[in-house]
Structures are given as structure tokens and as C-alpha cells.
Amino acid sequence: MYVSETLVEAVRLVSNRHVNPLGTLYGGYMLQWLTDVGTVAAMNFAEGDVVLGFLDKTHFISPVRLGDLLMFRGWVVGVRRSSLSVLVESYVKRGDELNLATAGRMIFVKIDQEGRPTPVGKSLNCDSGWEGLCRYFDEWRAKADAVLKAEGPAVNADWHSVSRFLAMPEDSLDGVLLYGGKLLFKLDELTFVEAFSYYPTVYVTASVNSIVFRRPIYVGDIVEVKTGVTHVGSTSIEIGFVVEAFGSRGRRRVADGFFTFVNMAGGKPSEIKAPPRGDEISQRRKEESVKEARMLKMLKPQRDKAPWLLQLF
Predict the structure, then answer these.
(1) Residues 256 and 193 placed together within one structural domain of the fold
(2) How many domains does the chain have?
(3) The model scores a pTM over 0.90
(4) Sheet holding 69-79, edge to edge
(5) Mean pLDDT along residues 101-115
(6) Where a domain ends, among 111, 127, 143?
(7) Integer Cα distance of 86 and 96 in angstroms
(8) What is the pLDDT of residues 151-166, one digit of tens each?
(9) Cβ atoms of residues 257 and 238 within 8 Å
(10) In angstroms, what CA-CA distances link 175 with 27, 86, 172, 184?
């Protein structure tokens, strides 16, 4: 099977319950819908159950407003023994105009009925003309391996426990494991709370980076989310988070990563009047994210439903 043949599509209509006070799509819904499409693409190719293991370099490029049509396309772009790399793009459609709204990279793991990793058992071929995209995802996956092995952000003394909640059956797909899309929806809200608490203003989600789902969360677990400010720039603020779960299986770290928000007071990126904050790693993460977001904004519609990211290679 070729990468192009793994295409999965979906369409969403943005209604009142999906928007934030600015009248634009709430970031948590976008993340959940991206995960939905990525999950379907991975399940369809693997012909079995999958769980989200990693989410990275997810950029919010164009605003999505109330009443907009939002189109999604997802492709499996890489396969290892028990995991699949997936690209999901979304496009906002207004009349005959189509613009890239979001692009995200994900890693899913195929699991058996006991929730353990199991071989995908299939190979994937790269289409002619798509070699640059396939090489990019091979390189991205190698970098992701290093992130997956690292400990993730450390919880400092100035971090806060912002929420505890019970993982319910309605938060899962199978009644056993918490669905990654549901967790991302909650994390977008909780990291926003941290950003607003640090510097109150009007924020929108700009990007999501290096989110690692380290261990499963089971229905019935108590889930605790801790957040802290990891970087403050001129108009943006990055929030790190750590998720822990505890229950009959003991207490364990289950996820961690970073959300970046932009101050949109006045309807455009505005200054955050707070002291700069961050280290070399967070500064490099910001610079790479801003650089890539600028490139993505230049992309144009592709023919034959090919990924817009092909234009970068």
C-alpha cells in the first residue's frame, strides 16, 4: 500500500458550542478532531485498535470562525514494528477559498485486546514525488525517539496542580482506556488557565509540541494535571504540563508536553508585559515553531488531495 492510499477525510461544521469568547474555534476541539482523524487513519491501516503515543509540531495556522466548514485529511506516512506515524492536515473553507488551518504529526501504537503493543504486520510504500515528505517523517521519528526516552518537563516549585478528575467511560472509546483526544481537549483548557493566571489577557492556542503519552490512563483512575510557565516571549507564553494518574495500579506519570498561547488582545498578537522567561531549550523550541509556522502559512492548495506539506520538500 502507498501513503496516498491511506488517506482518510472528514468534515466538521463549526457551531456555537465549538467556539471561544472570540468567536473562533476553541483549540481543544481542534486537537480532539485532529486526533479523531489520525486515529481512524491508523486503525484503518493497522486493521486493529491503536492508542495515541506522541503528538508534536501541531500548528494553528489560520483562524477558524463560527459557521466555517473545516475539512480534515490524514495519512499514514511511516510504519515500524508496532507503531505508525501519521500526518493530519485541516483546511478552513469559506466559499471557494481554502486555507490551511492546522497541521499535526502523531505516532500511534497498535495494541491487542489486553492493551499491549502488537505488530502492525504491514509495510508502506512512498509515492513517487512524495520521497521528501517520507524522508522528513523518518527523520522526525528518529528525533521523536529521543523525546520519548527523555524524562520530560520537571515539576518545579512554582508549578500548580490545576485539576483532578475521574476518568469516566464516556472519556474512552472502549470503556477501558482514556481516549487521547479527550485528554488533549482538557489539557488545552487547563494550560490556558495557567497562562491566564500568570498574565491575564485574551489567549488563543498557537501550537502544541512534544506531548508524550507515556502510560495508559484507565477508566476509574484519578487524573491530576500540573502546569507551569516554561517560556515567556514578547507576544506568546509557553505552558508545560505533567499528567499523573493514580488508582488501583498505583501512581504514575502518564503524559507531559507543552502548549503555546498568543496574546490576542485587540484582535492581533499583542505584547505580554511580563519579564522574559525560559532557558535555551525553550527558546530553541519557540524559534523552530515560529519558523515552521511561517512556512506553513505560505502553502497553497494541492491537486489530487495530496498533503500541503509536500510543498516544503
Answers:
(1) yes
(2) 2
(3) yes
(4) 8-13, 69-79, 83-94, 97-111, 49-60, 203-213, 252-263, 236-246, 222-232, 160-166
(5) 93
(6) 127
(7) 28
(8) 888 898 899 999 999 9
(9) no
(10) 25, 24, 5, 18
Q: Are residues 38 and 78 in the same domain?
A: yes
Q: What is the CATH number of the domain that holds 103?
A: 3.10.129.10
Same domain as 246, residue 202: yes
Q: Can you tell me the mean pLDDT for 165-171?
A: 95
193 against 304, higher pLDDT: 193
Each residue's pLDDT tens digit, 199-251: 999 999 999 999 999 999 999 999 999 999 999 999 999 999 999 999 988 99
HEC sequence for the chain: CEHHHHCEEEEEECCHHHECCCCEECHHHHHHHHHHHHHHHHHHHHCCEEEEEEEEEEEECCCCECCCEEEEEEEEEEECCCEEEEEEEEEEEECCEEEEEEEEEEEEEEECCCCCECCCCCCCECCCCCHHHHHHHHHHHHHHHHHHHCCCCCCCCCCEEEEEEECCHHHECCCCEECHHHHHHHHHHHHHHHHHHHCCCCEEEEEEEEEEECCCCECCCEEEEEEEEEEECCCEEEEEEEEEEECCCCCEEEEEEEEEEEECHHHCCCCCCCCCECCHHHHHHHHHHHHHHHHHHCCCCCHHHCCHHHHHC
Q: Which domain holds residue 163?
A: 151-300
Question: Among the three residues 127, 142, 169, which one is the final residue of a domain in this structure?
Answer: 127
Separation between Cα atoms, residue 172 and residue 179, nearest integer Å? 5
Q: Does residue 179 sit in the same domain as residue 285?
A: yes
